[in-house]
Structure formats: structure tokens, C-alpha cells
Automatic annotation (TrEMBL):
CDD domains tied to this protein: Rib_hydrolase
Keyword Disulfide bond attached: yes
Lineage: Eukaryota, Metazoa, Chordata, Craniata, Vertebrata
Keywords of the record: Disulfide bond, Hydrolase, NAD, Transferase
Gene Ontology molecular function terms on file: NAD+ nucleosidase activity, cyclic ADP-ribose generating; phosphorus-oxygen lyase activity; transferase activity
A GO cellular component annotation in the UniProt record: plasma membrane
Gene3D superfamilies: ADP Ribosyl Cyclase, Chain A, domain 1, NAD(P)-binding Rossmann-like Domain
Biological processes, Gene Ontology terms: positive regulation of B cell proliferation
Protein name in UniProt: ADP-ribosyl cyclase/cyclic ADP-ribose hydrolase
Family: Belongs to the ADP-ribosyl cyclase family.
Organism annotation: Pelobates cultripes
EC id: 3.2.2.6
Keyword Methyltransferase: no
Length: 341
């Protein structure tokens, strides 16, 4: 419902436009002022008898950013429903038939028209149930601080299936969302970070998704860590330390393979058996889980070097162990193949 208010006649240029969100385009035509934004609306002011008559949508554009995080991704519903069909039809048909519209309704019901700091993992239980599917044995892939490399190596479920390649994670990956108690129900301006409030919509979502993923992982599982991360490859606290490893089912997991990958050109801060890795190994040992640890696992290192074929780490690093002449010939071909697919 549109509400109207009278305001003193003032041109848009006299407002503090730094508070406006999105790309600002102003047009003045016979007293009609139009603002286009990234929000799902067009905001118009009409001049009448030296006054503006304003729809309440204008206040969306002038809203002050309340939180430190980015606002809800525009067209969130369309993106999630589209991703859902993409996943079950082309990415991983073995997930089975899913009702994508019902999944979207379950997802948004967890946070829309609610206090953005009072969203709990349990609010997403219906969503998790509707998106659930089995994880193939030996395909679970956990990580910290190297998301892009993990997903390049997993190759959209073809090689491994990290959380972001399961249906629950696929739908929410790289999106932002949060609610507001009043209309329009979602905050497109800003969302709270975990520092600002622990139980926000995204933190709670990834907590329950991580717990569920860990509980249903079985066989040999992989953990990839970043050995160049300041402070250590295995951060505590973290999703891996707090929500995933504690929920490993020791009756289902036969072995844990740890790969510690340094960035190309990055510092070698952490390695197997040292510093934070010793904490991880102690944690796994306390659960009586068999594990192995490899620094700069060669297949992953080769993938890293596709983007840096001439870097000294890719020519002399002992993790690759190939002569420079072979590297110079083969890596350009690997880069070409990777870009093609």
C-alpha cells in the first residue's frame, strides 16, 4: 500500500546522495523526478503546488545503512529457484527431483519479516530437509581459507563434492540475505555481520548446513587448508573446527586426508605437524580418526600452476618435481584446456 506525504519543494541534488544505494540516474521532466536504483523498484517524485507528493518507496533509497554487511542480493528468489533447477537438471541429477518453489518458500520463511539478529539454525530445518541428498562416499571435501581453489579442484561435483557443491550450499553460495521485521521483509541496504550479532540469517544458515554436511560424510574425506594464511592454516574458531569436525561420524569415516597448500608466491607459514596443524591432528586423534597429511599435494599444485606457468614455485617446487622444460611445454596446454572447459 502506498502512503503519501507533503514535503517542501527541493530538488534531488540538494539531498545527501551519498546515502542513496545503487547507481543513481536522475531525470527531470516537467516536474517529475525519477531515480533508478539497484533495488527492485523505481522511485518517483511528483511536484504539485510547490510540494512533493512522495510514495513511501522513496525512503528505501534514502535509508541509512544500519549494518556493516552488504544488503540482500536483488532478485534473490529468482536466483535461488533458477540455481535449484540448474543443479537438479545439469549439475547433479543424482540429487533427485526437488520442488524448487517449495524450497524457496522454506528458505525465505526462515528470515523474512523477522528480527535480523534473531535467526537461528533451527529456522532452516525445513529448507535442509527439502534440499537434502546423499553425498557419495569418499567425495566430501572440507576446507578453510582456500574456497576458490577447492571449487576449481572439485569441478562441480565431478571430482569431489564440498558443501558449496551440494544442493543446500549451491543455492546460497556467494549470496547475501537478511530480513527486517516490517515491509518489505528483506533488507536490501545492509545485513548484520557475525561481529554485530551472532544469530544472523547467513551465519545460522551456514552453521546448520555445515553440521548436516559433516554428519552425512563418509568413507575417506579430504580437508584442504591454506599454508600461507597469517595466523595458521587451521583457524580456531572456524566452521571446520566448531561445526564440522565435531560432527564427524567416526563409524562412517575411514580416513581423513589433509592437504596443506601454499599460495603460489606465498609464504610457507604452516606445514603438516607444525603450528596449527598439530592442533588439527590432535583433534582428529582424539576422535580416533586415521589421517594423513601432505604439504602441497601435487595434483592440486599442478592446478595452481596453470595460472602461473612461469613462476619459480611451479618450476622448482619439490611438490611438483618436474623438470623446467616439461613445465614450460605442458602448462600452457593445461591452461588452454582449463579455459576451454
Amino acid at each position: 500500500m502506498i502512503t503519501w506525504s507533503r514535503r517542501k519543494r527541493t530538488k534531488f541534488s540538494e539531498y545527501k546522495t551519498e546515502k542513496l544505494q545503487g547507481k543513481k540516474t536522475f531525470k527531470e521532466t516537467q516536474g517529475i523526478y525519477v531515480q533508478k536504483t539497484s533495488l527492485p523498484c523505481i522511485q518517483i517524485r511528483f511536484c504539485y503546488n510547490n510540494c512533493y507528493i512522495c510514495s513511501d518507496t522513496i525512503f528505501l533509497g534514502l535509508a541509512v545503512k544500519q549494518w556493516g554487511g552488504d544488503g540482500t542480493t536483488p532478485n534473490l528468489g529468482e536466483i535461488i529457484i533458477g540455481r535449484c533447477y540448474d543443479y537438479i537438471e545439469t549439475v547433479n541429477p543424482s540429487a533427485g527431483r526437488k520442488n524448487c518453489s517449495e524450497i524457496w518458500e522454506a528458505f525465505k520463511s526462515a528470515f523474512v519479516n523477522k528480527d535480523p539478529c534473531s535467526i537461528f539454525p533451527s529456522d532452516y530445518e525445513l529448507y535442509i530437509n527439502l534440499t537434502f541428498h546423499n553425498i557419495p562416499p569418499n567425495k566430501s571435501f572440507f576446507w578453510e581459507n582456500n574456497k576458490d581453489l577447492v571449487h576449481r579442484y572439485s569441478d562441480r561435483t565431478k571430482r569431489y563434492m564440498p558443501l558449496g557443491d551440494t544442493l543446500p550450499g549451491w543455492l546460497g553460495d556467494n549470496l547475501n540475505w537478511c530480513g527486517v521485521a516490517n515491509e518489505p521483509g528483506m533488507d536490501y541496504i545492509s545485513c548484520p555481520t557475525t561481529t554485530e550479532c551472532e544469530y544472523n540469517a547467513q551465519e545460522s544458515f551456514w552453521r546448520i548446513a555445515s553440521v548436516t554436511y559433516a554428519k552425512y560424510s563418509y568413507g575417506e574425506i579430504q580437508i584442504m587448508l591454506n599454508g600461507s594464511t597469517p595466523g595458521g592454516a587451521f583457524p580456531v574458531p572456524s566452521f571446520l573446527a566448531d561445526y564440522e569436525i565435531p560432527n564427524f561420524d567416526t563409524n562412517k569415516i575411514s580416513k581423513v586426508n589433509i592437504w596443506v597448500m601454499d599460495d603460489i608466491g606465498g609464504a610457507d607459514i604452516d606445514s603438516c605437524g607444525k603450528n596449527s596443524l598439530s592442533v588439527l591432528e590432535t583433534m582428529l586423534g582424539s576422535k580416533h580418526l586415521s589421517y594423513s597429511c601432505v604439504d602441497n599435494y601435487r595434483p592440486v599444485k599442478i592446478l595452481q600452476c596453470v595460472d602461473f606457468p612461469g613462476h619459480i614455485d611451479c618450476i622448482t617446487n619439490s611438490g611438483i618435481c618436474f623438470p623446467a622444460s616439461w613445465i614450460g611445454i605442458m602448462l600452457p596446454w593445461l591452461a588452454l584446456i582449463s579455459n576451454h572447459f
